[in-house]
Amino acid sequence: MTETSDPCPHCSLPRRAFVRDAAAAVSALVSLGLPLDQARGLSWRLVRPRWSRDEEHSYPIPDADGAMIDKDNQIIVVRWQQKAYAFNLSCPHQNTALHWQPEDRQFQCPKHHSHYQPDGVFISGRATRGMDRFGVRRDGNHIVADVDKFYRQDENAAEWAAAFLQL
Question: pLDDT grade, residue 2 (50/70/90)?
Fold first, then answer.
C-alpha cells in the first residue's frame, strides 16, 4: 500500500506515516511500563470505553484535571476546571490527531500547529474554530459521549457551548 501524499505544501510527513510512527511510539512507552502522565498539570492516558452501544461510549469521569484518549473511537475525554468534555480526536482543520502539550497546557495539531485550550477553545494556528465536541450526558460516575451529536463551533455555536458536564 502506498502512502497518500498530503495536499498541503507545508507538511513534511504523509498522514499514514505520522499515524504509524505515533502509534509505534506510544506502544513502545506502554510496553516498557513507562508512565504516560505528563508532569505539568493535565495528565493523559489511553483508554477503552467502559461500554459502547450504538453511537454512545461511556468513560469514567477523571478524578482530577486530565485527558483520556480512546483512539479506537477517536474520542478525547477531558476534565478541566470542574467540567467534563468529549472531543473528536481530529483537528478541525485537516483531521490530524491532536496531541497534548504539557509544557503549554494545551492541545496542538502537529501538522499545522493549531493550538487549543483544554476546553477545546481555539487559540491560534491554521484552524478557524475550536475542537469539535460530542454531545455528553452523565451516567453515575461516567460521561457518555454520543458521536451522533457532533457539534462544530462555527455551525452549532449554542450546542457546542453547552456540550459539557458541570461536575
Answer: very low
